[in-house]
Automatic annotation (TrEMBL):
Residues 97-168 form the UBR-type domain. Its EC number is 2.3.2.27. Pathway: Protein modification; protein ubiquitination. SUPFAM superfamilies: ClpS-like, Winged helix' DNA-binding domain. This is E3 ubiquitin-protein ligase. SMART domains: ZnF_UBR1. The keyword Zinc applies.
Length: 1755
């Protein structure tokens, strides 16, 4: 196949070879104009090496390029052979102490939560393992590619910046040393020359924009007409679109198209056609036409081949530069210098600038190559990193603008480098001060959000898709801002203050655009027509949340900055709301002799906005001020006097009123967008800078106001002023207005208002508001979360606000407030609140949602009841306020407050006259409780001479003044204490009164009279005793009541039994009889049972009654009755396979008669054990089928089960099934009714008889075949053949079963055949009976394995369903021959028999090394009746069974001895004492002879016997199970308990001598010749000569692969894995087969293969070879177990890896270190061993319908 191109290529090769690198370099050294010289070289050679045809030949190109192009450069640089030059450079180098390893996609990275300066500081695995952080709290993530290891960067780590490896170099570092001093002048000069030329060349060619022309100095003499049609990547078109278009445009196959598309997606471009200009143009126009319909078309260019060649070399060159500078830090510095040197065009003309600025025009592949180069050069050199950062900042705006117009993800944009530059604290600070970076970022951000409303606020309404897209991209700027601010300065310079405040101004401008955005008006009458857009505004708010917090942190670190910022913020707030009273008529409010002026404003009628970032920022700064020293030493220095408290509180109050009104149902017509906004306003993601700050702002305002004034304004904003200012308004209101909704509404509003007051006074856990620290704040959050219920770690983390470093601070305090409870096999570890923390519970904790509040209330009351305490939930004792907020407590004792409390209590006292609610009362009680706690605290903490001005107790003791003369609050409480309708609140009222008395006592007692004190406690004590007594009495009453009810119930029951006496007796009897089955017979220990043979223990089977789960009718299992069936699931299995590379190639021709001992493909049958009538099942199945077919047609859905394949769900337990097994009586009893003669033949005789019978049959068959036309002669022929005595081959036995049962026998047989071989059903196929026997044998073997692995006794208590399944399956297999052709079964028997007793007409049987003996035993025993039924000589079936069993056992022993590999052990040679050992040795000697001494020299008898015993155990156990279920002989009780191996018991049960070798000795006559025939086989010889393998015994159980303890080593392993099909590319979804350990490239086009005419992913394809359709995988990136079965079924399963908190991390989102949980892994293995994977998938899919829709076959 010599192509035309070849001679040319070879010719070229020669000219290349002549080009010597040394000579070229020498020429260059002499050159006067080096640039021209080099360019000429490149112009000549590059197009001759690269791009010579339609497809690239990377290896050849690289080889030539190295030789002709790069080689000379290396020579030039070194001035000698680079083979010596580079190592010299390397030696002279003092390598940097930075690791700088660039991460591959999917590589694990580690960050230390204790020591990393911010979460972007990460280590590579190697550095991490060698660092101190491995013992710290760390977080693990997988890299998205890009980014590098920060090991060695002292700025990145608070502690331990070096790992062991990189620490080596740090001892002698002098930071400032110039790496150039280690290079010679010559090298520096040459490097400089060559780097400058090459770097310029690469930049020039990559940024070249003409498609059909080259730069002047690279032009070629003659230009060929060879072009490429180059397709570029975009993020608009889908894979499918591209593939489809390509097939049309360039006329390629789908496979090729997929290949193109994959490369385009990965590299950003790929040529799809090569040829002359016209040819390429044509393809281009088709592509453009085809993709331009909805969107902008795919980008395609027709490029000249020489241009593409130069560009390819340009990229090669950049990577080359990257590797060359790895030799020496000096070379790296030179490259940096070259890159950043300003070019001829001044500003922005350096090579680095040029690359950055054309970033968005470059294709993906080019970008990633030069980004990599930047990372390994500029970012690794501390000096140049700074200079580069400056360039980056200077270009920042332009780069961002380009990025906005580009459609590629940020990860492939140069803007993503910001994380490397901005997160370095010194760089960030330098950029802020020198480049004003903070301002630039914010301004750039504002520039891109131009959409504003009339007031200059952002407007997201009527937002186009394009704007939305831009909005998403612009959010990355916020990320940059975050990087810049992430580390707070410890020291401030004036310059930094200045620039930060400038940035703060810009930031305020930004917030100003948000203040009041998206305002809403209450909709009345009609529902809103369109849900307004709200998400964009909230996204912005959410993204800015951390920034706002960080800005506050910066301010807090410098007092000057803080005060300045505070002033600025206040100024902006005044600009926003300065004129808020304009145009409004002031109104005057007055209650209780207090009056205040305010504006008229109704939230329910006017515009209101939930976005108030400026006032919230001010609130934050105010609290920071309150913490500062100034506030508490010189408050006069603060700009407090400029504040107008009514203005401060106005907007936050409106916002809170809005929430209350929404809650009261007043805004229903505004739709869901509002509900969502309110939700996020309170949500943990936003509340820190929204709801929390509004509360703080109110606290700030109120602390500067007369509380009475505030309360009146609040009443007015809540639109409740009327109700409380007008005496008896409430009464009127309830009687006059009958509108229930309005009453309800007002009640809710009152409740909400009271709640707000509780929050304003009670929420003092923010440092600065109350005298607390951050730890106490977080502790309180946790206590309240855990008051709701115990929580898992991740749940708790989710409920707590995270800071910008993703920390909640929870770990530091959790131990002090909670106990950890470890998880079991399922579920998660849980934290439980410590009991002593319950006293800090506040029912009105402000972060509770309503649902959480009521759950917490219920939980806490229940807890108190359990502890036999009263159920009052009084307010907790609170920390004191900070001085600035101290006056807040006065709200509680203000006149208006007392009036509100009094009014509500009054309503409750006269409870029928008013509209009021219990929650209202509960809140009032809570407020009173708070006031009492406050007063008590004040009294207890008061200095001796201090007068406590908080006098709540006095105020509530005073009755109301004339004219209403209402009773005092105290009096009303006393009244309510006995109100029957307030049972729930009784405990609380009692608590209030008790506390009141205690306070009175303190007040009355001067500090010098402790007597009163004790009296008080005694009082309290006695009241507590009284409480206790009361409670005890109640408990007693409850107990009596319970007993009475119980007595009544049992009385009723007795009546019932009396009436239905007969019925009950029956059931009792039934119970008795069923237990009698188990107890009947001598189950006394020591009694021996025999499971088979003439001496078989005779058991009379009890009559068996079963109930159909469908029609509920009972039915006896009988031979002639209607069939009863068990739902069953048949599947192919490789669970026991010892050879996974083997699978059935051509099922039509496959002969399953002999199972190979590698058990490579078996058929497993399982059942849920549910019994139905055959006809009931048939009816059920038909209806399911009809329904599903209709549904599938209509919905085109995948179902969790495949009806067309006969699958259905068990009607009772929904277990996946695909057929049914008929229930049968022990089939042997039916046929062995013929007499058992006492003198049965021995083995030798029996074999002779059977051989004769077989011979007779065979000659009959032969003659039959020979004389088919002369059928009349048949009988004559029969006589001619000499028939053994009593053998009547013409006899055809009657089938004893009913038609119905026969039908079911066929049904199940056919199903087993169909599934086991994966063929079309054919009940006539001769392989049907074989498959039935095989399935029986295989299922028993797999169960024996499970029992052994779990160390469970063979006949221990098996689960019912398993027991039923095995029994039915065995009996079915034994009965199946009755519905098969007698001739076929006889033929099978003959052939099976021939494998042990050779026979002339069967020379194609396998050698005994290649037969699984248990399968052989089952088949022989179950096929035997077909022969025996024609034998009237008196040989019983039992005799046959016994001899078959002995024969197979002996064959197995020989098999074991032949394959045993016992090591010689001289020590034991002497102890040849045991009879068994001697016998074994004798047998071994015989084998040794028969094999012509090929068998290994005689080892010790002890070893031999031991290996026989061990090797044969599984076989004996399986046989015991088999005969047990076949003949129904109960198992001896000894085998029912676990413990020793029960070898003796098994032998007894199976009618074997305990010295198994005796079998040979007893039948030595025939056995010697048989052994000889077995050993003579050629295969055996080959095996013994080491030419082939054989399975040895016992076979070890298959296990899932070993998984590493630490999950990250799996991630690491997977990150090194590359897709096997696309040449070294990293796989995106590496997936590990847990069965065989293969790593696969899942969920990707590249690794799709065709399977049965469909494209399937790598996992599905793998299951077909590895697990015959079923598979267990670990998706490494997701940390998720995947179960697959067939093409359509799959589910995800929880992985066996847990973090320290006992939780899995599916999707690796949390990043906590994960460790293998062996028990959970064992559970997965057990599912596999039990063949329950498919069932598990079925259940998962039934439970979660979305799983059904997933395209599992593409994984
Ligand atoms: Zn590293
Ligand atoms: Zn390191
Ligand atoms: Zn650490
Ligand atoms: Zn039925
Ligand atoms: Zn079931
Ligand atoms: Zn596998
Ligand atoms: Zn792949």
């Amino acid at each position: 196949m010599a192509s035309e191109l070849e001679p040319e290529v070879q010719g070229l090769d020669r000219t290349f070879l002549e080009c010597s690198a040394e000579e070229t370099a020498g020429k260059w050294l002499q050159a006067t104009d080096l640039t021209r010289e080099v360019y000429q070289h490149l112009a000549h050679y590059v197009p001759r090496i690269y791009c010579r045809g339609p497809n690239p030949f990377p290896q050849k190109e690289d080889m030539l390029a190295q030789h002709v192009l790069l080689g000379p450069m290396e020579w030039y640089l070194c001035g000698e052979d680079p083979e010596f030059g580079f190592p010299k450079l390397e030696q002279a180098n003092k390598p940097s102490h930075l690791c700088g390893r660039v991460f591959k996609v999917g590589e694990p990275t580690y960050s230390c939560r204790d020591c990393a300066v911010d979460p972007t500081c990460v280590l590579c695995m190697e550095c991490f393992l060698g660092s101190i952080h491995r013992d710290h709290r760390y977080r693990m993530t997988t890299s998205g590619g890009g980014g590098f290891c920060d090991c060695g960067d002292t700025e990145a780590w608070k502690e331990g910046p070096y790992c062991q490896k990189h620490e080596l170099n740090t001892s002698e570092i002098e930071e400032e040393e110039d790496p150039l001093v280690r290079l010679s002048e010559d090298v520096i000069a040459r490097t400089y020359n060559i780097f400058a030329i090459m770097f310029r060349y690469a930049v020039e060619i990559l940024t070249w924009e003409k498609e059909n022309e080259l730069p002047a100095d690279l032009k070629m003499v003659e230009k060929s007409d060879t072009y490429y049609c180059m397709l570029f990547n975009d993020e608009v078109h889908t894979y499918e679109q591209v593939i489809y278009t390509l097939q049309k445009a360039v006329n390629c196959t789908q496979k090729e198209a997929i290949g193109f598309a994959t490369t385009v997606d990965r590299d950003g471009r790929r040529s799809v056609r090569y040829g002359d200009f016209q040819y390429c143009e044509q393809a281009k126009s088709v592509i453009v036409r085809n993709t331009s319909r909805q969107t902008k078309p795919l980008k395609v260019q027709v490029m000249h081949s020489s241009l593409v060649a130069h560009q390819n070399f340009g990229l090669k060159l950049l990577s080359w530069l990257g590797s060359i500078i790895g030799y020496s830090d000096g070379l790296r510095r030179i490259l940096c210098q070259v890159g950043l040197q300003e070019g001829p065009d001044g500003e922005n003309s350096s090579l680095v600038d040029r690359l950055m600025l054309s970033d968005s025009k470059l294709w993906k592949g080019a970008r990633s190559v030069y980004h990599q180069l930047f990372m390994s050069s500029l970012l690794m050199d501390l000096k140049y990193k700074k200079l580069f950062a400056v360039r980056f900042a200077k270009n920042y705006q332009q780069l961002q603008r380009d990025f906005m117009d580009d459609d590629h993800e940020r990860a492939v944009s140069v803007t993503a480098l910001s994380v490397q530059l901005f997160t370095a604290p010194t760089l960030a600070r330098m950029l802020i001060t020198e480049e004003n970076l903070m301002t630039i970022i914010i301004k750039t951000f504002m520039d891109h959000l131009r959409h504003r409303d009339g007031q200059g606020r952002f407007q997201f309404e009527r937002y186009t898709a394009l704007q939305a897209f831009k909005f998403r991209r612009v959010q990355s700027l916020i990320l940059d801002l975050k990087y810049v601010l992430i580390s707070r300065p410890a020291v401030w310079s004036d310059e930094l203050r200045h620039k930060f405040l400038e940035g703060f101004d810009a930031f305020l401008e930004l917030l100003k655009c948000m203040q009041g955005m998206d305002p809403i008006t209450r909709q009345v009458g009609q529902h809103i027509e369109m849900e307004p857009e709200w998400e964009a505004a909230f996204t912005l708010q959410m993204k800015l949340t951390h920034i706002i917090s960080m800005v506050q942190d910066w301010c807090a670190s410098d007092e000057k900055v803080l005060i300045e910022a505070y002033k600025k913020c206040l100024g902006v707030l005044m600009q926003c709301h300065g004129g808020f009273t304009d145009g409004e008529q002031p109104i005057t409010l007055s209650i209780c002799g207090h009056s205040v002026e305010t504006i008229r404003y109704c939230v329910s009628q006017e515009k209101v906005s939930i976005h108030l970032p400026v006032s919230r920022l001010l609130a934050g700064l105010h609290v920071l001020l309150s913490r500062s020293e100034v506030a508490y030493k010189f408050p006069e220095l603060l700009p407090l006097s400029e504040l107008s408290p009514p203005m401060l509180i106005e907007h936050p109050l409106r916002c809170l009123v809005l929430c209350a009104q929404v809650h009261a149902g007043m805004w229903r017509r505004n739709g869901f967008s509002l509900v969502n906004q309110i939700y996020y306003y309170h949500n943990v993601k936003c509340r820190r800078e929204m709801f929390d700050k509004d509360i703080m702002m109110l606290q700030t305002g109120v602390s500067m106001m007369d509380p009475n004034h505030f309360l009146m304004i609040m009443l007015s904003r809540f639109e409740l002023y009327q109700i409380f200012s007008t005496p008896d308004y409430g009464k009127r209101f309830s009687s006059e207005i009958t509108h229930k909704d309005v009453i309800q509404q007002n009640n809710t509003l009152i409740e909400e208002m009271l709640y707000l007051i509780i929050m304003l006074v009670g929420e003092r856990f923010i440092p600065g508001v109350g005298q607390v620290n951050a730890t106490e704040e977080i502790k309180r959050e946790i206590i309240h979360q855990l008051s709701i219920k115990p929580m898992a770690h991740s749940e708790l983390v989710k409920s707590l606000p995270e800071d910008e470093n993703k920390e909640t601070g929870m770990e530091n305090v959790i131990e002090t407030v909670a106990h950890f409870k470890k998880p079991g096999l399922t579920g998660r570890g849980m934290y439980e609140l410590k009991p002593e923390c319950a006293k800090e519970f506040n029912l009105y904790f402000y972060h509770f949602s309503r649902a959480e509040q009521s759950k917490a209330e219920e939980a806490q009351r229940k807890l108190r009841r359990q502890n036999r305490e009263d159920t009052a939930l009084p307010p907790p004792v609170l920390p004191p306020f900070c001085p600035l907020f101290a006056s807040l407590v006065n709200i509680l004792q203000s006149d208006v407050m007392l009036c509100i409390m009094g009014t509500i209590l009054q309503w409750a006292v006269e409870h029928n006259g008013y509209a009021w609610s219990e929650s209202m009362l509960q809140r009032v009680l809570h407020l009173i409780g708070m006031a009492l706690q406050e007063e008590k605290q004040h009294l207890e903490n008061a200095m001796e001479e201090h007068v406590v001005t908080f006098t709540f107790t006095q105020k509530i003791s005073k009755p109301g003044e004339a004219p209403n003369n209402s009773p005092s609050i105290l009096a009303m409480l006393e009244t309510l204490q006995n109100a029957p309708y307030l049972e729930v609140h009784k405990d609380m009222i009692r608590w209030i009164l008790k506390t009141f008395n205690a306070i009175k006592k303190i007040r009355e007692s001067s500090p010098t009279s402790p007597v009163a004190e004790t009296e008080g406690t005694i009082m309290e004590e006695s009241s507590r005793d009284k409480d206790k007594a009361e409670r005890k009495r109640k408990a007693e009453i409850a107990r009596l009541r319970r007993e009475k009810i119980m007595a009544q119930m049992s009385e009723m029951q007795r009546h019932f039994i009396d009436e239905n006496k007969e019925l009950f007796q029956q059931t009792l009897e039934l119970d008795g009889s069923s237990s009698a089955v188990l107890d009947s017979g001598p189950v006394v220990s020591g009694t021996t049972f025999t499971a088979l043979g003439p001496a078989q223990t005779q058991v009379s089977e009890h009559r068996q009654f079963v109930t159909c789960i469908l029609c509920q009718e009972e039915q006896e299992v009988k031979v002639e009755s209607k069939a009863m069936v068990l739902a069953a699931f048949v599947q192919r299995s490789t669970v026991l396979s010892k050879n996974r590379s083997k699978f059935i190639q051509d099922p039509e021709k496959y002969d399953p008669l002999f199972m190979h001992p590698d058990l490579s493909c078996g058929t497993h049958t399982g059942s849920c054990g549910h019994i139905m009538h055959a006809h009931c099942w048939q009816r059920y199945f038909d209806s399911v089928q009809n329904k599903e077919q209709r549904r599938q047609q209509r919905l085109r859905l995948h179902m969790s089960y495949d009806v067309e394949n006969g699958e259905f769900l068990c009607p009772l337990c929904e277990c996946l099934s695909n057929t049914v097994i008929p229930l049968l009586l022990p089939p042997r009893n039916i046929f062995s009714s013929r007499l058992n003669f006492s003198d049965q033949p021995n083995l030798t005789q029996w074999i002779r008889i059977i051989s004769q019978q077989i011979k007779a049959l065979q000659s009959l068959r032969k003659e039959e075949n020979a004389s088919i036309p002369a059928s009349s002669e048949n009988s004559k022929n029969m006589e001619e053949v000499e028939l053994p005595q009593g053998f009547r081959p013409d006899f055809h036995p009657q089938n004893p079963y009913s038609e119905n049962i026969k039908e079911m026998l066929t049904t199940f047989g056919t199903a087993t055949y169909k599934v086991g071989l994966k063929v079309h059903p054919n009940e006539e196929d001769p392989r049907v009976p074989i498959m039935c026997w095989g399935s029986c044998a295989y299922t028993i073997q797999s169960i024996e394995r499970i029992l052994s692995d779990e160390d469970k006794p063979l006949f221990g208590p098996l689960p019912c369903r398993l027991d039923d399944c095995l029994r039915s399956l065995t009996r079915f297999a034994a009965a199946h021959w009755t519905v098969a052709s007698l001739l076929v079964v006889q033929r099978h028997f003959c052939k099976l028999f021939a494998s042990l007793v050779p026979n002339d007409s069967h020379d194609d049987v396998p050698c005994i090394l290649d037969i699984d003996m248990f399968h052989l035993l089952v088949s022989l025993v179950l096929a035997f009746p077909a022969l025996q039924c024609q034998d009237f000589s008196g040989i019983s079936l039992g005799t046959g069974d016994l001899h078959i069993f002995h024969l197979v056992t002996m064959a197995h022993i020989v098999q074991i001895l032949l394959t045993s590999c016992t090591e010689e052990n001289g020590m034991d040679q002497e102890n040849l004492t045991g009879e068994e050992e001697l016998a074994t040795l004798t047998l071994y000697k015989i084998l040794h002879q028969c094999t012509g001494s090929a068998l290994k020299e005689i080892p010790s008898g002890w070893h031999l016997w031991r290996s026989v015993r061990a090797g044969i155990m599984p076989f004996l156990k399986c046989s015991a199970l088999f005969f047990h279920y076949l003949n129904g002989v109960p198992a001896p009780s000894d085998i029912q308990v676990s413990g020793a191996s029960h070898f003796e018991h098994l032998c007894n049960y199976l009618s074997l001598p305990t010295n198994l070798i005796c079998l040979f000795q007893e039948n030595s006559e025939i056995m010697n010749s048989l052994i000889e025939s077995w050993c003579r086989n050629n295969e055996v010889k080959q095996y013994l000569e080491g030419e082939r393998d054989a399975v040895s015994y016992p076979r070890e159980s298959n296990k899932l692969i070993d998984l590493p303890e630490d999950y990250s080593s799996l991630i690491n392993q997977a990150s090194n894995f590359s897709c096997p099909k696309s040449g070294g590319d990293k796989s995106r979804a590496p997936t590990l087969c847990l069965v065989c350990g293969t790593l696969l490239c899942s969920q990707s086009y590249c690794c799709q293969t065709e399977l049965e005419g469909e494209d399937v992913g790598a996992c599905t394809a793998h299951t077909y070879s590895c697990g015959s359709g079923a598979g267990i995988f670990l998706r490494v990136r997701e940390c998720q177990v995947l179960f697959l079965a067939g093409k359509t079924k799959g589910c995800f399963y929880s992985p066996p890896y847990l973090d320290d908190y006992g939780e899995t991390d599916q999707g690796l989102r949390r990043g906590n270190p994960l460790h293998l949980c062996r028990d959970r892994f064992k559970k997965i293995q057990k599912l596999w061993h039990q063949h329950s994977i498919t069932e598990e998938i079925g259940h998962a899919q039934e439970a979660n319908q979305t799983l059904v829709g997933i395209d599992w076959q593409h994984l």
